[in-house]
Write a structure and sequence with these properties.
- It is a single chain.
- The chain has nine helices and five strands; from the N terminus they run H-E-H-H-E-H-H-E-H-H-E-H-E-H.
- Helix 8 links the parallel strand 4 and strand 5.
- Helix 6 crosses helix 7.
- The protein has about 160 residues and is an alpha/beta fold.
- It is globular.
- The protein has a five-stranded parallel β-sheet with strand order 3-2-1-4-5.
- The chain has a single domain, classed as Rossmann fold (3-Layer(aba) Sandwich).
């Protein structure tokens, strides 16, 4: 799998970004061009999500989950290497997640996937800069993983959307 990552994948997307895009800011009925671009990225092996993101989407049980189920190829299972990086993050940053708060938490898995394969995390979370209750951008900064939000992705890809 490493060869595939090194050659194609560029972004590890988290649950909040998908929810923000689909349900909050850029739904497919309003921004179909964006969703076509996401699908192109998936088809071209540029965009990936860890399986735990899909698990979190099951908690939503909405049209986004239906969309995700039609793009199962973007969701990959974790392996031993990813587990190891998650453990290392937890050792270095023990307050990086609150396991009691949520049934599932894909955050560290999203970050570990990006760390291992030197790809960028896309998240809807905003960093706090605090030592406890860290958010994805805080953890990424601490462990030197590139991270930005959906607008950062749009700018990097130089996507411009026109409203008709």
């Amino acid at each position: 799998m490493n060869n595939l990552f090194n050659k194609f994948y560029k972004y590890s997307i988290d649950t909040s970004s998908l929810i923000d895009a689909y349900n909050r800011y850029y739904p497919p009925d309003i921004m179909p061009d964006l969703w076509e671009k996401f699908e192109e990225m998936i088809k071209n092996f540029e965009l990936i999500a860890i399986k735990q993101v899909m698990d979190e989407l099951y908690g939503q049980d909405d049209d986004l989950l239906k969309w995700a189920k039609t793009h199962k190829e973007m969701f990959i299972s974790f392996d031993e290497e990813i587990q190891k990086v998650v453990r290392l993050i937890l050792e270095e940053l023990p307050n990086s997640i609150n396991l009691g708060k949520e049934k599932t938490n894909a955050d560290l898995w999203v970050i570990a996937l990006a760390k291992i394969h030197n790809i960028t995390v896309i998240t809807g979370e905003k960093g706090t800069g605090k030592l406890k209750d860290r958010k994805i951008p805080d953890i990424c900064k601490k462990i030197h993983v590139r991270c930005f939000d959906l607008l950062g992705l749009f700018r990097e890809k130089e996507w411009i959307f026109h409203i008709k």
